[in-house]
Write a structure and sequence with these properties.
Length: 174
């Protein structure tokens, strides 16, 4: 009986001790993402790139709280798998961002889904990519809040040395 109680205490500590609060977002990061988004095409208005950047950071913060993120993200995946958390897998992030941003009707941007290591159970990873209207996914900007447990990672697709991204135009979102 004592062993079960001890295991329960350790597991509870891990759940509470690893909880992530939504990181505060600096204006510098918002501007950095807006600049990267604007660099996708010379016709992208600065104001639209800035609004998209704010929307991405806003939704990321909202989802971090909603998913009750823990760190590292692989541990959070374990919690989802065993039913201790409802959501927070990488595709939950990309799908939620895709749906949210698509409803905003940006005139200069399109949103697509990307994947890496597709079909490899423990290594598959999914993210959102932002492209200029009519642009190619491989030339877009990866939006990946999962890999740092709710702290937004973004870069040009080709500059992301962590993953070899593949466009997933038929994956769809639920």
């Amino acid at each position: 009986m004592r062993k079960h109680y001890f295991n329960f205490l350790i597991f509870s500590f891990l759940l509470v001790g690893c909880a992530v609060t939504a990181p505060s977002v600096s204006q510098t990061k918002i501007k950095e993402l807006a600049h990267l988004l604007q660099s996708l095409d010379s016709t992208v208005p600065q104001s639209e790139a800035m609004q998209l950047s704010k929307d991405i950071f806003y939704k990321t913060q909202q989802l971090t709280g909603e998913f009750e993120m823990t760190s590292p993200p692989q541990f959070h995946n374990f919690l989802v798998t065993v039913g201790a958390r409802e959501k927070g897998l990488c595709f939950h992030w990309s799908d939620a961002l895709y749906v949210y941003l698509s409803q905003k009707h940006y005139t200069s941007f399109e949103f697509h889904l990307m994947g890496a290591n597709i079909g490899e159970y423990f290594y598959e990873h999914n993210a959102l990519v932002v492209v200029a209207k009519g642009g190619k996914a491989q030339q877009g900007v990866i939006i990946d809040p999962w890999r740092d447990s709710g702290e937004l990672y973004f870069s040009k697709v080709g500059d992301d040395s962590e993953y070899a991204w593949i466009h997933r135009p038929t994956r769809g979102c639920l």
